[in-house]
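Notes for week 9. Today we move from apo structures to complexes. The key idea is that a small molecule is not decoration. When we ask for a structure prediction with magnesium ion present, the ligand SMILES becomes part of the input, just like the chain. The input block below holds both the sequence and the ligand string. Read it once before you look at the output, and try to guess where the molecule might sit.
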Amino acid sequence: MTSTPVFEVRNVSFAYDNSQAALEHVDLTVRSGESLVILGANGSGKSTLLKLLDGLYFPTEGEIAAFGEPLTESNLRDDAFNFAFRRRVGLVFQDSDVQLFCPSVMDEVAFAPLQLGLSHDEVGQRVDEALQALRIEKLRDRAPHRLSGGEKRRVALASLLSLNPDVWLLDEPTIGLDPRSLAWLVDFILQLRQQNKTVITATHDLAFAQKFATGIHVFDENHRLAASGKPGEILADHELLHRCNLSHFHVTHEASICH
Ligand SMILES: Nc1ncnc2c1ncn2[C@@H]1O[C@H](COP(=O)(O)OP(=O)(O)OP(=O)(O)O)[C@@H](O)[C@H]1O
Ligand SMILES: [Mg+2]
């Protein structure tokens, strides 16, 4: 028995201001519990795809369904649909400054559970757990915009953890992370996988992708999906990686990386 896909993307194109192409005829299906990686060079369309999957933009052409329902502007205007969708899907933006808007880290992490209408005690518990999981208890009373890049990224992840969505959209989550935080992030994504969460990560870091991906989609520089497959086959396809301007990263069997 196959379950309803989390996302079905059918022949989706998107152009900013109806002129700047960002996605061209993209087809893909995301199933529950997958840890998918979206690979592509700068400007290939990774962030745009995640924003479409988060219902922030809508296709210029083609269709997206989320949990079997059309993900359209009019459906998202319906309060019940919007609430259910926002509860199940969360996006960590490539630029944390776009995401963090509250006066303190605590307010930031409490925002989603408050929106869910949880009790004061439950909100407090979720905030404590998320701060602990991300090891940022000490940042609790700090202003998010005054944090370092890596600290901001942890706060952004904590604010998603306090929502605890089924689907995690992570846009370049490695940016600003030191090696220890990077190792921690891989563990964190693997834990999400164990909890059967669906994770879609945009990155151009092949070694990072190799550590947790169950499947990989590769965009070329014409904003088209150049290939989809298992990490082993995609990362071994040097011609593909070269064509998509990703080949200056070489992935070894030990998952180390060299330029
Ligand atoms: N707000 C915008 N207005 C106009 N064009 C945009 C906008 N955001 C992105 N684009 C264009 O859309 C295309 C896809 O951009 P996108 O940000 O999705 O790429 P990306 O793969 O995430 O790149 P990166 O690796 O640099 O984050 C690019 O050509 C980009 O210049
Ligand atoms: Mg991007």
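The chain has one domain: 7-258.
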